[in-house]
Amino acid sequence: MRIKDIGEIRLIKRAAGDFRLDRSVVKGSGDDTAVIRWAKNKYLLFTCDMSIEDVHFKLGEATPFQIGWKALGRNISDIAAMGGVSRYALVSIGINPDLPVSFLNGICKGMKTLADKFNINIVGGDMARSKKLVIDISLIGVTPRLNEARKLVKEFKINSMIDISDGLVLDLWRILNASKAGARIYQNTIPLSKDADSFEKAVYEGEDFELLFTMNAKEAKRYFRTALAKMETPVTLIGEIMPRRFGYKLIDKAGRISPLKAKGFLHF
User: Fold this and answer.
1) CATH 3.90.650.10 fits domain 148-259
2) pTM, to two decimals
3) Number of Cβ atoms within 10 Å of the Cβ of 179
4) What is the CATH number of domain 3-145?
């Protein structure tokens, strides 16, 4: 059996099954960000993400500055989805030695600009020769986060939150799977960007880096009554969490109900 025959989700579960975790680990492998208890009522958030040439970007389509910005931004988004503030980063880069020094300088400038914006310390890393450009960043954060998530976590009881990196349908399924719940989402409520030329692309393609969160009905009513106007970022109600037996369903514009499959961007 080959890795691509198993698929990314099953592969992660299979690989993580043998990892030893002690009582300090509140949440380990299986989520985008690990949660570690390091003192009484205090937690560390720990995440890592790779950005790989021809998988996450193409050299002819993205500038070095954009590549560096995106590489760090993916990690910040993961910490943010846990309601955390990003603090310390390690950066490892595999790079073709034939590239000009100015190219690497551009990558570093992109990361530095974003790190300065969010007061993140880049404290070290590693560098190696590689045929294709690979950037692997590990980031440590503490609760809570960026403006939107910080306001949500501080003022409301949030049941779950994730950043949409692999597509709305797949990342919501991850919440449902972890919570042993079902859901229904409404096609006519899902916002479409100008770059999404179809509903399918909007819900199945990744790298939106929007926050997807759930709260109970009472909190949701309070939120939309008191907080929506104060949020600089638009928030849209797209569906309801249901009992697990209901399954995972889409209600289309005509009111028809159809099952949703947990698909989105997966590496294999």
Assistant:
1) yes
2) 0.64
3) 14
4) 3.30.1330.10
